[in-house]
Amino acid sequence: MFSGIVEEAARLVGMRREGGNVHLTLACSFVDELRIDQSVAHNGVCLTVVALPGDGTYTVTAIEETLRRSNLGDLEVGALVNVERCMRMNGRLDGHIVQGHVDCTATCTAIEQVEGSTYFKFQYSADRELVRKGYVTVEKGSVTVNGVSLTVCDSEEDSFRVAIIPYTFEHTNFQQIAVGSKVNLEFDIIGKYIARMFKAE
User: Does the global pTM surpass 0.70?
Assistant: First the structure.
C-alpha cells in the first residue's frame, strides 16, 4: 500500500529483457535502506526488489502483464522514474490510498502554465465496461499519475487535468512529461468499490 507521495525520481541505469519480463535497475538515495522482497512503487507500479548488488543500485522485475498496462516497457536508460516505498501504518496518509496496481495508461495532450503552477491534461480510453468498473475520474477527486497522488480538475468522460506545483515538478518525472508522453493511471480504489457495489444490486 502506498500514499502517492513520491520520495524521489530515481534514475534508470539498466534494462534487461528475459522472455516476456524486463529487469529494471535503478539508482536512488535510499538504496542502502532497501531489502530483497521489499515493495517499491515505480511510476505507480508496485514491484518487488529482487537484487541489491551493493553498488548504489537495485533491481526489480516487471512481468508482461505489467508492461502491457503501464509505461515501464517504454522507458529508456537515463529516464527518471518516480519511486515510493510502501506506506508505514503508523504514519500520516498525506496523499490517498494507492495500491500500486496501474489500471491503464494515458497520453498527455496539453501543458499550460497558470499562475506559478503547471496544468497537465491527460486523455485515456474510457469504454463503457471500464467506466462501470469505476475507472473514471470525478471533479476534485483523487487520481494517481505516474505514482503521484493528485487532485482532479476539469474531469471529462475520457480526460482530466491536474495542477502541478513547482516542488512536485522539480522532484518527480513530471519535468520530463511532454505532449504525447504516456503516463500510468491508477483510479481511486474507493470509487471502484462503489461502482462494484452498484453493479451487484
Answer: yes
